[in-house]
Amino acid sequence: MAKSASFHEQLIEKLRKLLRSRQFVPGAKFLTEREIAERFDTSRPTANKALSSLVSTGLLEFRHGAGTFVRGSVLDYDLQHLVSFTEKAKAAGKKPGTQVIALQKLSAAEAPAAAQALKAASSEPLFYLERIRLADAQPVIYERRHVTARFCAGMNKAYAKGSLYDFWTTKCGLTISGADESIRAVNASPAQASALGIKPNTACLLVIATGFLEGGVPLWYEETLYRSDAYEFRNQLGGVSGPKPAQGRMR
Amino acid sequence: MAKSASFHEQLIEKLRKLLRSRQFVPGAKFLTEREIAERFDTSRPTANKALSSLVSTGLLEFRHGAGTFVRGSVLDYDLQHLVSFTEKAKAAGKKPGTQVIALQKLSAAEAPAAAQALKAASSEPLFYLERIRLADAQPVIYERRHVTARFCAGMNKAYAKGSLYDFWTTKCGLTISGADESIRAVNASPAQASALGIKPNTACLLVIATGFLEGGVPLWYEETLYRSDAYEFRNQLGGVSGPKPAQGRMR
DNA sequence: ATTCCTAAATTGGCTTAGCCACTTGTCAAA
DNA sequence: TTTGACAAGTGGCTAAGCCAATTTAGGAAT
Fold first, then answer.
1. Quick one: A194 and A85 in the same domain?
2. Which of A20, A212, A237, A250 to mutate to test the interface with B (most CBs of B within 10 A)?
3. Looking at the structure, do residues B170 and B51 belong to the same domain, yes or no?
4. Is position B2 within any domain?
5. CB A145 within 8 A of CB A222
6. Greater confidence, A142 or B241?
7. Strand D at less than 7 A from CB of A61
């Protein structure tokens, strides 16, 4: 089994590649099992088995009588669920809040780390957003974020006060594919400590992250500070419920 | 599709439950596709499709001509890979090292946090292990760990200097199913700072974790401090390669 | 009595062909 | 123009069969 993959395993890989190479947008109709059986010279049950595998990993969706479709919003919902501070505060029985400290448009040359992460030319316009997220009026998160402006030209303070995820997906029509995070510990500077309502030099969790659109195009770069007395990341190795990323939550 | 699960999806669930309810040990033979087809009154391709799903999630393994088996060591390998500092140091081109600071046997009453996490009666014997992990002779990790002694009675300083994972799995015959980690940031105390070779009060990553054996029995409780200038946790949200836990690595 | 070899049985891998339930689209009638 | 019916297309699943790989059992030889 490990030596040479069975035909159906190879077919799964081929379909996965096809799904990516053709840039099927969420909601688009994918190949039918009869089309796959013909095109890859295999039987329908084998085609269905390969499709079923992609359905169970969430990439596709069967609609009985209609066909097989590329999944849209479910993956997006999972992502929003993973990152939403509002949800996490509420889950902890606290009232979430947001203070917008700054929202500016600047050029990438003014923010070299973000420019690099976003692969932006030096004249490329970026939005710089600085916010504090609160739970029961207590600051928990100090967020600084650069966003590629051309993807969300209509950004303003009102949108900055709400869910960025909502704004990007519904107002800008973006499809966000994920984010790569690095989790570190830092001593809060006096300014950072002031923003978070803690003593200077207190240890905080720092998440440096880049977020991506479908197709791997970077959308945002963030350096976000979390009060560690109020927030932690939970990570499960092994276990019966299958692998998943570490998740932040209120302590 | 979402309203009522198809038969094959229900069958997957039934088989998953069967797999757990009967306590199939890794390596044991599971039901054949013909047995499943007969027992659940379905066709062989449908039985095979359900089994294939459990194979692709890693719970089972097909052996052509021999049958379907419960997976053993592959999950274990993944776990070791996830936690092995030795591997991570080497991957960063550094020479790993370990200093055993303390190895004692004590009763659970002497370590209330560990006793609680390990669900140990106050008279239950625990091992207390304190180590420093080094990369190129520089301290990176300060590890304090309590282990339920009855699972690894032969623990000694020689074993404590090497891979605990190896010792537990090969010498004690344990099957480790995973660990639950909480990732926080703390200011290093003078003793902790001294152990890690950093200035007191420097921000460090603190991982508080409980590790489990197959069946959910707790094996160890740890409070492990990481120098954040040398080590970070990487976490991927979304992305094309599927979900996985956050992973520590050298910076 | 033990060991080795061969044949039969068992198992996964996959096929063909078919039926049924569901959905969508088109055409005809009101 | 709208509604209903029918046809075509699609997933869900079946039965039966063949083939390759592995295991087991029985018989023969030492």
1. yes
2. A237
3. no
4. no
5. yes
6. A142
7. no
